[in-house]
Design brief:
- It is a single chain.
- By secondary structure, this protein is an alpha/beta fold.
- Helices cover 32% and strands 16% of the residues.
- α3 links the parallel β3 and β4.
- α1 packs across α10.
- The radius of gyration is 19 Å and the shape is globular.
- The mean pLDDT is 95.
- It binds S-adenosylmethionine.
């Protein structure tokens, strides 16, 4: 990769996670508070402004962009944005992270617009537990979205993401693995991160990937894999199956040394690290259409990329006050 985006610790940044909205049709209990304050609409980036940011990052050597949110698919005309981003010279991959609720209708248009791969969040296969976690979600709608996605992209371009919650979904891990294996799709288990005040003590529902691995390894005979998707997941395989089982473990297996990403919120804030407060505000430069200023702000943010996240589950209050839905998961 030929990118000038190198931080003070020698890490190259080639990956942008671009949030297109902080709104979501779900209210997952570990992600959001029951009552949320959202960014005023006047401060939300237009899709053209999102494109300008994407274009500037790609001109600086970023070759992978993920659209995220909030729920990116509740943003009107997101397919238009995906198609424009796909045309940027130098872009290798465009991905999407979604809760899946809109995929039954949008999978085919998004695949046509140039989304290359999709992560779908799925925290439970039990309709009641699913509704309890998401507060407003409907499991069948997501499963229909998953079927449409397999038809549009094929199994090998789809990954499920499950946030581990002790006493809520951790007993479902073997079923979730079986579900992924039956469809030939990947699945990653994510340790809960203390982002924003959800009104729950994170430590109470935290379930570590060390425990998750010990729980499912003997059931499926997991073998470690050296494969990487260029992200924080450490993968395992099950002999005879296509699916990979990933573990994203900010607490039990820190991955900051390999971090290659930065995040831009739907309000144009550039966060060089998910787990730190530091931010560079791109909005004034974007609103002025000043690409030169944007480039220098991005370089400034890369230079300030912190060494590691500051997640600490032993604290009663989260040290990062932003919700994941604001930063862009
Ligand atoms: N709405 C989309 C979705 O559900 O995938 C995209 C945004 S969501 C914030 C992205 C991912 O972050 C989801 O997989 C979600 O489960 C995860 N997430 C949200 N809050 C989290 C937290 N506090 N710790 C760990 N993962 C979290």
């Amino acid at each position: 990769m030929n990118s000038p985006l190198q931080d003070g610790y020698g890490r190259k940044v080639n990956y942008l996670r671009l949030s297109v909205t902080d709104r979501c049709d779900f209210r997952c209990t570990y992600c959001m508070a029951e009552k949320m304050d959202f960014v005023p609409r006047s401060e939300i980036l237009s899709l053209e402004e999102c494109l300008l940011i994407a274009q500037t990052f790609v001109s600086l050597g970023v070759d992978k962009i993920r659209l995220t949110g909030g729920e990116p698919l509740v943003r009107k005309d997101v397919t238009w944005l995906a198609a424009r981003i796909r045309e940027l010279p130098g872009l290798r991959e465009q991905a999407l992270t979604t809760n899946g609720s809109q995929l039954a209708g949008l999978a085919a248009p998004l695949a046509g617009a140039g989304i290359d791969r999709v992560n779908i969040s799925l925290d439970s296969l039990d309709p009641e537990v699913f509704q309890c976690i998401t507060r407003t979600g409907n499991l069948q709608q997501v499963l229909d979205g998953l079927d449409a996605s397999i038809a549009a992209w094929g199994s090998r371009r789809i990954k499920l993401n499950t946030v581990l919650l002790r006493g809520i979904n951790h007993h479902e891990l073997p079923d979730l693995v079986k579900f992924a294996l039956a469809r030939g799709i990947d699945i990653s288990f994510i340790e809960q991160m203390p982002l924003g005040d959800t009104g729950h003590r994170r430590a109470d529902s935290y379930y570590g990937n060390d425990e998750a691995l010990a729980q499912i390894k003997p059931v499926f005979g997991l073998v470690p894999s050296i494969e990487s998707s260029g992200g924080p997941a450490r993968y395992w395989r099950i002999p005879g199956h296509e699916s990979r089982i990933g573990f994203i473990s900010p607490h039990t297996q820190n991955f900051c040394a390999d971090c290659n990403r930065m995040r831009v919120t739907a309000r144009g804030e550039l966060f060089p690290c998910l787990g730190n407060a530091g931010m560079v505000d791109l909005l004034p430069a974007v609103r002025a259409g000043n690409e030169a200023k944007l480039r220098s702000l991005i370089l400034q943010a890369v230079a300030a990329k912190p060494h590691a996240h500051e997640f600490d589950l032993s604290q009663p209050e989260p040290c990062i006050v932003r919700f994941m839905s604001h930063t862009g998961g």
